[in-house]
Design goal:
The chain is α/β, with parallel strands linked by helices. It has helices at residues 20-23, 28-38, 53-61, 82-90, 129-139; strands at residues 2-8, 43-49, 69-73, 95-99, 121-124. It has a 5-stranded parallel beta sheet with strand order 2-1-3-4-5, sandwiched between helices.
Length: 140
């Protein structure tokens, strides 16, 4: 059985409440229950969300030897955090960057990802299903 960390960055604790026209009305707790049930025989999931950059970095560092991969939605840190990028580069744990919305269809400042160049791959624009697609990428 694979072990995957779902790691969410800032404001994703508001999933289902914040900007529902962009992110939808399903809470992340509801979605993670569905995802866990879907992969019950193949994947053990851990989930961590923080609005604090350093806590996300610590989670990436602590992933080594504990997880087969990370599905990361870094939220706004995607576009600004050299530190998250460096943390991903420093560990052997594969990371798939995901976004609920298409960052390329949004404001211009969101078009650049600091994480994409060091991630295994990037998935965006499929709503919460982007997480499932990230899991699939790690399982392949």
């Amino acid at each position: 059985m694979k072990k995957i960390l779902i790691l969410n960055g800032p404001n994703l604790n508001l999933q289902g409440k914040r900007d529902v026209n962009v992110y939808g009305s399903t809470t992340f707790e509801e979605y993670i229950a569905t995802l866990t049930a879907r992969y019950a025989d193949r994947v053990e999931f851990d989930y961590f969300q923080s609005n604090i950059e350093g806590e996300l970095i610590n989670a990436i560092h602590q992933s080594v030897g504990r997880y087969d991969g990370i599905v990361l939605n870094a939220g706004g840190y995607t576009h600004t955090s050299v530190a998250l990028r460096d943390a991903i580069s420093a560990v052997a744990t594969p990371v798939v960057e995901i976004h609920i919305s298409s960052i390329l269809a949004r404001e211009e400042f969101r078009h650049t990802s600091m994480i994409a160049p060091v991630a295994k791959g990037s998935i965006m624009g499929f709503g919460l299903d982007s997480y499932r697609l990230g899991v699939e990428a790690l399982l392949e």
